[in-house]
Amino acid sequence: MPKKHRVIPIVKQAAAAKPRVHYDCLKCPGYCCSYDIIEVGKRDIARLAKHFEVSYQQAEDRFTKYDRDEKVRSLRHQKDKLFGKICTFFDTKKRQCTIYEARPKLCRDYPAEPRCGYYDFLKFERDHQQDETWVALTDR
Ligand code: SF4
Ligand code: SF4
User: Fold this and answer.
1) 8 CB less than 6 Å from ligand 2?
2) Within a domain: residue 9?
3) 8 Å CB contact between 31 and 118
4) Quick check: is 118 in a domain?
5) Ligand nearest to the Cα of 30, by number
6) Closest residue (by CA) to atom 8 of ligand 1?
7) Does residue 12 sit within a domain?
8) 58-97 tens-digit pLDDT
9) Is 137 domain-assigned?
10) Does the pTM of the predicted model rise above 0.85?
């Protein structure tokens, strides 16, 4: 049986103004950036091309790959000591996105609700360990 990929979920953005959120991505090691599949569309690739001042085709070739199992185009990955692999645009030392203004729509929309389950998990573990730097891992 083929290995099941962890696909970043596509979530619908609420039509109303964004509510106050209860998570802080700057304090998170980047769980959502470690999904196996971070799907991108044509507009995302065009945005990346503009950001890096390269052609659409160059952006598609350099930064994305086609997943035959899931039949989607997604961002490439790099090695990561915490999660095994993570998005190619993630700064693995600062634990932050390096293309925040040019990130794909999927990343902008996630988690599309006031709470992030990963952040709640992280907060719980940090409180439990009484260590604000503790990095709780999930299935890796
Ligand atoms: S997992 Fe949640 S808190 Fe962490 S970077 Fe993603 S959206 Fe932000
Ligand atoms: S583009 Fe940025 S926000 Fe999106 S997965 Fe990659 S590092 Fe994370």
Assistant:
1) no
2) no
3) yes
4) no
5) 1
6) 25
7) no
8) 999 999 999 999 999 999 999 999 999 999 999 999 999 9
9) no
10) yes
